[in-house]
Amino acid sequence: RRVRIDVVTIFPGYLAPLREALLGRAIEAGLVELGVHDLRDWTHDVHQAVDDSPYGGGPGMVMRPQVWGEALDAVLAAGPARLVVPTPAGRPFTQATAQAWAGEERLVFACGRYEGIDQRVVDSYAARMPVDEVSIGDYVLVGGEVAVMVMVEAVVRLLPGVLGNPVSAQEDSFSDGLLEGPAYTRPVSWRGLDVPEVLRSGNHAAIARWRRDRALERTAARRPDLLDALPEDALDRADRAF
Ligand SMILES: N#Cc1c(-c2ccc3cc[nH]c3c2)n[nH]c1N
Questions:
Q1: N or C: which end of the chain has fewer CB within 10 A?
Q2: Does the beta carbon of 55 lie inside 6 Å of ligand 1?
């Protein structure tokens, strides 16, 4: 099963890293099809204008609906898709979102710039297909391209055959609701710092307990909100020490 991903942007070069490394190999292996489209290809004026002043006033410019409508009609003509519009005002993009989208046949990403895209673009497509306005975090970027890179990577790594070691997709930081604890490799001592003894003990029960304790400790320290969100039965007596 392959996924078709299309991205519309005024900076197609910004998406070039998607063709590198793991994702590049997934594309070469035919697990993913990626199309990057320059929004300006759908302008008709000599200045290739994609933006205009905001109704109601205010700073900056807004991206014009006509150009986006022609671009998205053209890209969506290839078949039904989920339209994703990154925006700081979007619902949070989470691992659950990535899991859900990994099951889609087609994803089309509309990368905004300036102060964003005329709302009627989202409203007109939402009438005929799933449209998600999503945010990758509570900080402000200059455009949607970086957010699309983040979301495409989070989705594509979940597709069968993409990760060499599929188990790690299941054991993600967020799959048991906790942050991952610390990881170590050789040498056993480095700059006076030693690998925790238990990890070299061969005692797998003790190792599992130690790792769970480190994950709970880190989650309590860095993301107490994740602990509060755990289902009631997720923590056993040994866990509650944290
Ligand atoms: N997703 C997301 C975003 C953005 C974002 C997305 C699109 C545009 C278009 C102009 N400026 C943008 C910022 N900022 N911060 C996030 N988490």
A1: N
A2: no
- How many A from CA of 238 to the centre of ligand 1? 42
What residues contact 161, with CB distance under 8 A and at least 6 apart?
26, 29, 31
How far is it, in rounded angstroms, from Cα 82 to Cα 65? 19
> Which amino acid residue places its CA nearest to atom 12 of ligand 1?
143
Closest CA to 135 of 122, 125, 148: 148
Read off the pLDDT of residues 118-177 as tens digits, 9 standing for 90 and up: 999 999 999 999 999 999 999 999 999 999 999 999 999 999 999 987 755 555 656 689
pTM assigned to the model: 0.94
Q: Is the ipTM of this complex over 0.90?
A: yes
Element (H, E) at 207: helix 204-222
